[in-house]
């Protein structure tokens, strides 16, 4: 199995009237079978409306097959437990890039899908918490403002009050490795993506 595999992939757009009755069905992707190996360079070509974008949306689980199966790095896109991992593996980029995919490289549809998945399980309290950024020392509730590592108190605070981001100041930063370790540990402590700013 390659990094991307589609087996008998079919996707239909269903048009409904105001009462929910089916008015029409358009098959956008019809029985596609493809096995893309890691490192392959693949172009999906076709005229407007031929299903290129719909096929691409299957690769990051924005839409689910009407029939068939799509695997991304061995993960079935129909399994909702795989959605976040799939989107961290595959995204629809604006341009070809060999660097690690970042959110600024993703198209609007992909970002909206990721945001919807992240927020659908969140309580109102957690959604409001996403509006706020806190400093590292506010997470620790300590008198010192010179934290250079993640403490158990910081992890507890992030679990209890999931903030939208964490601010690190010069006194919290010693080396690039220490900073990366600290931001990685802060992210691991939060069940939602954090924005980490360094000043």
Q: How would you summarize this macromolecular structure in one to three sentences?
A:
The protein has helices at 52-59, 83-89, 108-119, 124-129, 136-140, 152-160, 176-189, and strands at residues 4-16, 22-36, 67-72, 75-76, 133-135, 165-168, 195-198. By secondary structure, the protein is of the alpha/beta class.
Task: Set down the secondary structure blueprint.
Layout lengths: L3 E13 L5 E15 L15 H8 L7 E6 L2 E2 L6 H7 L18 H12 L4 H6 L3 E3 H5 L11 H9 L4 E4 L7 H14 L5 E4 L1
Parallel strand pairs: 5-6, 6-7
Antiparallel strand pairs: 1-2, 1-3, 3-4
Name some characteristics of this structure.
199 residues, alpha/beta, four-stranded antiparallel β-sheet, 31% helix, elongated
Note down, in words, how this protein is organized.
The protein has seven helices and seven strands, in the order ββαββαααβααβαβ. The chain has helices spanning 52-59, 83-89, 108-119, 124-129, 136-140, 152-160, 176-189; strands at residues 4-16, 22-36, 67-72, 75-76, 133-135, 165-168, 195-198. The strands form two sheets. The chain has a four-stranded antiparallel beta sheet, covered by helices on one side. The protein has a three-stranded parallel beta sheet with strand order 5-6-7. β3 (67-72) and β4 form a beta hairpin. The longest helix has 14 residues, at 176-189. The model is unreliable at 93-102 (pLDDT under 50).
């Amino acid at each position: 199995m390659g990094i991307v595999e589609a087996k008998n992939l079919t996707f239909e757009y269903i048009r409904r009237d105001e009462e929910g009755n089916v008015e029409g069905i358009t098959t956008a992707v019809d029985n596609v079978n493809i096995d893309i190996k890691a490192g392959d360079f693949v172009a999906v070509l076709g005229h407007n409306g031929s299903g290129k974008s719909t096929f691409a949306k299957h690769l990051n689980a924005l839409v689910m097959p009407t029939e068939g199966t799509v695997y991304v790095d061995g993960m079935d896109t129909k399994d909702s437990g795989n959605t976040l991992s799939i989107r961290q593996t595959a995204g629809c980029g604006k341009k070809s890039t060999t660097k690690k995919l970042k959110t600024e490289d993703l198209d609007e549809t992909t970002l909206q899908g990721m945001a919807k998945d992240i927020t659908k399980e969140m309580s109102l309290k957690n959604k409001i918490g996403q509006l706020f950024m806190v400093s590292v020392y506010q997470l620790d509730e300590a008198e010192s403002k010179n934290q250079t590592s993640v403490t158990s108190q910081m992890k507890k605070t992030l679990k209890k009050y999931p903030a939208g981001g964490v601010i690190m100041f010069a006194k919290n930063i010693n080396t690039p490795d220490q900073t990366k370790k600290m931001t990685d540990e802060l992210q691991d402590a939060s069940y939602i993506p954090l924005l980490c700013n360094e000043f």
